[in-house]
Design goal:
single chain; Beta-lactamase; alpha+beta; about 300 residues; seven-stranded antiparallel beta sheet; about 35% helix; globular
Length: about 300
């Protein structure tokens, strides 16, 4: 078992001041590993980066909604007006009330959206995973399953989601627990996560194509207009990208391959730098359409900068 390796370094006057360590893998368009750092076989919790696979399982179980709303099922949304309205639209389409949501209470994820929320208390619908939960509830209605316990590990919905994740990742879950939103969460390796997204991008079934199309066509619904994943998906046609809590990210395009990484300290400070360097490994570059990272505390670039050492 190898140790985590540096995925990003803070450089001050050409000296490494601090570093973000983790695991990273890049696989090419044929599914072959072409680059890795750290221990890509160590189990990690993929957090929200696995939502495209969770959503595909729901589509396979009969969830049929327009791509704009399906993007919300995949989303870790910022809590903008259009996000919250979309979640309500999903719920009402299946005869569900907002009270059916069992995700955690939270304020909007986006900084601007949180300010616009004002003094209102945290709510389930403003929680960034409310779209996923609305999709889960809708899938239960379609299949005549109990909606009161849809987050139980042994609920038919969650069993089907786990099966899809394990099949796509080509490995069994190493740990079963619950995500920050309350939904079941299954540990797989960084390599398994990359395989799962590769499987999604390269499967010709209707469910996989629906997920990819929703992410590609509605990146702002998957995240928010100023979020890293939305910016990159707008910049590169065909690219899908999804962040996950605690430093996880996946990205890929069918003709190029997939990258996946986990930053061990859970920080997202260096995500833009790591993502740019990783995507270049599979021949993708957002160029000037994706602004370079500039936020480094304690000094101006180029004397202080975050760089990827690979």
């Amino acid at each position: 078992m190898s140790a985590p390796e540096a995925l990003a370094q803070v450089i001050r006057n050409e000296m490494v001041e601090s570093a973000h360590y983790g695991h990273l893998i890049a696989i090419d368009g044929a599914g072959n590993e072409i680059f890795s750092r750290g221990d890509i076989q160590a189990p990690i919790f993929p957090r929200s980066s696995i939502k495209p696979i969770q959503a595909r399982a729901m589509v396979n179980l009969g969830l049929k909604i327009e791509p704009r709303l399906l993007a919300l099922v995949i989303a870790s949304h910022s809590g903008a007006i259009e996000h919250i309205a979309g979640v309500r639209e999903i719920l009402s389409s299946f005869g569900l009330k907002e009270s059916a949501l069992q995700c955690a209470f939270d304020l909007p994820l986006g900084e601007i959206e949180r300010k616009l929320w004002g003094e209102k208390p945290p709510a389930r619908i403003s929680m960034n995973c409310s779209g996923k939960h609305a999709g889960m509830l809708a899938t239960c209605v379609i299949n005549n399953w109990d909606t009161s316990n849809y987050l139980d590990m042994n609920h038919p919905l969650q069993i089907a989601i786990k099966q899809d994740i394990e099949s796509a990742a080509q490995e069994k879950s190493a740990n079963e627990t619950f995500d920050g939103c309350g939904a079941p969460l299954f540990a797989i390796s960084t390599a398994g996560l990359a395989r799962a997204i590769y499987n999604l991008l390269n499967s010709d079934d209707g469910a996989s194509q629906a997920i990819v199309r929703a992410m590609r066509d509605f990146p702002e619904m998957v995240a928010g207009s100023q979020r890293l994943s939305a910016i990159w998906m707008r910049a590169i046609p065909g690219l899908i990208m999804k962040e996950g809590a605690e430093g996880v990210l996946i990205a890929g395009a069918r003709a190029h391959g997939v990258v996946a990484f986990k930053v061990i300290d859970g920080s997202m400070r260096a995500h833009e730098v790591i993502t740019r360097a990783a995507l270049q490994r599979i021949g993708l570059d957002g160029g000037s359409a994706v602004p370079a990272a500039t936020t480094v505390f304690g000094g101006p670039p180029p004397k202080v900068a975050i760089r990827a050492p690979f």
